[in-house]
Specification:
The chain is of the alpha+beta class. Strand 29 and strand 30 form a beta hairpin. The mean pLDDT is 91. The longest helix has 42 residues. It is elongated. The strands form eleven sheets. The protein has a four-stranded mixed β-sheet. 35% of the residues lie in helices and 23% in strands.
């Protein structure tokens, strides 16, 4: 099983999920482009149905289902996903707001011109290795001869087994300039490269706001980039202010725009801000335009910061520039990627000109034979007329064998015996048509031969001198940049952390957090709570005083602590229902019962006592629960045990434990040891088999507490004060 899984994992890593650094393509993308090339679906020819392309690719090269092929084809055609689309799509190929492409039977596609020129143009010149397809009936390229670092230009995202890649797209012009700089100076530093290529260039534009983090990201190939949308202000109706979002973060492409609109609406609904009047999405084919109408007196900068903090208008792009290099996955920095691309450019250029040189040398051999033949054409005609068959004439031309050939004179036979053409030249002479003997044709042949010799000298120079090859690569890159380069779309700055100042933040308002037994919670103004305190305490399980900036702690019977911010709760009146705490925390009240609730501000000043069903007790300093995480373990529980009581000790002097079988034990709180939250505690009441703790009471100095259980009134303060870990007294 281990070997089978490792084989599967490597297959996914190498053959499915990760791009090759040399051409920046995953196998499904490479196969789709090559299949379109084979089918002749060029940029200057009619579109073909996507279903035709998908079916042919699946049948020949990629037997992993049509959906993966069509998804790859669609993404390569979406200009909002790729910095440089490789496929020209015709029909509904989806949009930036998350609507998917139409079915493959409705859409059509063809190659983009740059794909033909920079990805597929030299496949006929033996520049790429070919390998067998899945059933060894076809040949497919192992890598496409891409003439620029496509791994950086278009980026990639993919999840393999135990690893994932996430490379942001970059500007074609800047990537080419950086590669040229590396070709000129092999020892160029990462810092110098970043002066040319300062960072990603997302097709959706936006603003990168952590410029100072980019050098480390491009050094290691890993990190996090913070992107913000671009926001402008306009005058609205009735003197209102319109905040217009014209560019969005790249991570919002897809359903993120709808989520953003919902989040902005929630800011108004939950009364986090009162500045929003209306929000509309006016985006079209011309571009993004989301309009938020604000009140006249709105603090624009503060409201922008609110959007950055509470919505995806500021988001994070995780960078992990992982790709296949030399047959294995590797995470690379900017310089390493460019070095791999430069090596690949030298390799494909060398193979291209070796192939061209070989063709020119064969052409020169034929041309020299024809030129020489034109000088003795009368003799050659005599040989042809005197030969019985082609083989006899060819032997004479190549070996000087005149046996069996009729000549007009012995001199002709002697001259024929001295002919020493090569086999290739002899075949060319025998295939030559008579019109090639025209004077102009002979002149054209001589001129063509001169060009061939010139080409041979040039190709040999390129192959023998690295500087000459570098000039060729440089010229090709500059031509691509001039033809397809675009201005940078993403702005790069070092921005400040977004800080939203609530209009009421300075006041740190007093609030009352209330939650009912169904898990619905809200905050109330203390004055409103005071007027309805009796009914509120009857309606709500928990009523906790807190501040507007407090963090609330919920302790559950499973020993978990869940935290939530008071500001995330809606402010409500007495009759308002509130919202389920499940919506703003990971606490599922339908599965876990909340035993105790308090604010961190209060907890950190005291201690919390825990009592479990198995009779274990302990006291934990409140500072242990001064955490930011939304969920932590509040205490350690044995298997099958649960919390039956949790609460602040405050001024309590004794604690009373009552079991289900009617045993009571009262002992001083000093007997409860103070422990960390990771401890299990000590035994409070020694229980008999099958018994559990049912109720717990904390008693202060002089408290008189009478409870009625099983029709028996019991004055807890009159119970004998004993020591911890006793059996207690049976009272019913």
């Amino acid at each position: 099983m281990q070997k089978a899984y490792i084989d599967y994992a490597m297959s996914v890593i190498i053959s499915r999920a990760l791009p090759d650094v040399r051409d920046g393509l995953k196998p499904v993308q490479r196969r789709t482009l090559y299949d379109m090339y084979e089918l002749g679906i060029r940029s200057d020819r009619p579109y073909r149905k996507s279903a035709r392309i998908v079916g042919d690719t699946m049948g020949k090269y990629h037997p992993h289902g049509d959906s993966s092929i069509y998804d790859a084809l669609v993404v390569m055609a979406q200009e909002f996903k790729k910095g440089l689309p490789l496929i020209d799509g015709h029909g509904n190929f989806g949009n930036i707001e998350g609507d998917g492409a139409a079915a493959m039977r409705y859409t059509e596609a063809r190659l983009q011109k740059i794909t033909e020129e920079a990805f597929l143009a030299d496949l006929d010149k033996d520049v790429a290795d070919f390998g067998p397809n899945f059933d060894e009936t076809e040949k497919e390229p192992v890598v496409l001869p891409v003439r620029f670092p496509n791994f950086l230009v278009n980026g990639s995202e993919g999840i393999a087994v135990g690893m994932a890649t996430s490379t942001p797209p970059h500007s074609l012009s800047e990537v080419i300039d950086a590669l040229l700089a590396l070709l000129d100076d092999a020892d160029i530093s990462n810092e110098a490269l970043m002066r040319i290529l300062p960072g990603p260039d997302f097709p959706t534009g936006g603003i990168i706001v952590n410029r100072d983090d980019l050098p480390a990201i491009y050094e290691t190939g890993q990190g996090r980039i913070r992107i913000r949308g671009k926001v402008e202000t306009e005058k609205g109706r009735n003197g209102h202010i319109n905040l217009v979002i014209t560019e969005i973060p790249y991570t919002m492409v897809g359903a993120g725009i709808g989520k953003f609109l919902s989040d902005v609406a929630a800011l108004a609904e939950n009364k986090i801000t009162n500045d929003i009047i209306d929000i509309t999405n006016q985006s079209s084919k011309e571009g993004i335009r989301i309009v938020i109408e604000l009140r006249r007196d709105t603090d624009i900068e503060n409201f922008k910061n609110l959007l950055y903090k509470k919505t995806r208008l500021e988001d994070t792009f995780g960078v992990n520039m992982l790709g296949i290099l030399d047959g294995r996955p590797e995470t690379m920095g900017l310089r390493r990627i460019l070095e791999a691309s430069a090596d690949f450019q030298y390799e494909i250029t060398g193979r291209k000109y070796s192939n061209l040189l070989e063709k020119e040398q064969k052409k020169r051999e034929i041309q020299e034979g024809l030129i020489r033949a034109c000088g003795v054409i009368d003799l050659i005609i005599e040989i042809l007329r005197g030969s019985r068959d082609r083989a006899m004439a060819k032997r004479c031309l190549v070996q000087g064998d005149t046996e069996g050939i009729r000549f007009k004179s012995d001199m002709s036979r002697e001259m024929a015996a001295q002919l020493q053409f090569t086999e290739v030249q002899a075949d060319a002479i025998l295939d030559m048509r008579l019109y090639r003997l025209i004077g102009l044709e002979i002149e054209a042949l001589m001129k063509e031969h001169e060009e061939t010799v010139t080409n041979i000298y040039r190709y040999e120079d390129i192959l023998e001198n690295k500087s000459a090859m570098t000039r060729v690569i440089r010229a090709d890159l500059l031509a691509l940049k001039k033809k397809y380069g675009q201005p940078r779309r993403t702005e790069i700055i070092q921005g400040k952390e977004a800080v939203f100042v609530s209009p009421e933040a300075d006041a740190q308002r007093d609030l009352i957090f209330v939650m009912d037994r169904f898990g619905y919670a809200k905050t109330m103004d203390p004055a409103v709570f005071g007027r309805n305190e009796a009914s509120a305490r009857e309606s709500y399980t928990f009523c906790v005083p807190c501040k507007s900036d407090s963090r609330l702690c919920l302790f559950t019977e499973e020993g978990q602590l869940y935290t939530l911010k008071a500001m995330d709760l809606p402010a409500g009146r007495m009759r308002d229902k509130g919202i389920p705490v499940d919506n703003i925390s990971s606490c599922d009240t339908s599965k876990e019962r909340v035993m105790f609730a308090d604010s961190q501000d209060t907890l950190r000043l005291g201690r919390v006592v825990f009592v479990t069903g198995n009779g274990m007790v302990k006291a934990v300093p409140g500072t242990e629960f001064d955490v930011i995480k939304k969920k932590v373990a509040a205490t350690k529980l044995a298997e099958g045990d649960s919390i039956v009581f949790a609460g602040r000790l405050d001024d309590a002097v004794s604690i009373v434990l009552q079991s289900e079988k009617g045993y009571f034990l009262r002992f001083p709180v000093e007997d409860i040891p103070e422990q960390k939250k990771a401890a299990a505690g000590v035994r409070g009441l020694r229980l008999s088999e099958g018994d559990r703790i049912e109720n717990v009471w904390l008693l202060g100095q002089g408290d008189k507490t009478v409870v009625t259980l099983h029709d028996t009134q019991i004055d807890l303060s009159r119970l004998r004060l004993s020591k911890r870990d006793g059996k207690g007294t049976k009272r019913f």
